[in-house]
Known about the structure:
- The chain is α+β, with helices and mostly antiparallel strands.
- It has helices at residues 3-15, 19-29, and strands at residues 40-51, 57-67, 70-80, 86-99.
- Strands 1-2-3-4 form a four-stranded antiparallel sheet.
- The model has no long low-confidence stretch (mean pLDDT 91).
Amino acid sequence: MDALTAADRLLTGLYQVGLEDVLCEGCLTGQLPAQFEKDAAIARRCIRMQVDEDGGQSFTFEGTFTLMEVRYNFRCHIFADLGGQRFVSDIVLFEPVEWQTRVVV
Length: 105
């Protein structure tokens, strides 16, 4: 199982929301909903923004997403239309770069 699938399954199991929805919200607003306060964090920057002919906007974000003490580097493309619909159109990179293990004695 790859890192993207593992993180998506964990979020879906714990919060009933997928990784794409979490990345979309976190990238566009700069923060995650309060329900993720203990388990997840995001640090992102927009590296590209384009306004389409129909008024929609396309963004490319990169940064780090931390979930349950595992930090991932990511890069994704997000589209937002004039009607308020928004979604991740592609996750180009999602790889673990740091993690910690604990042993409870």
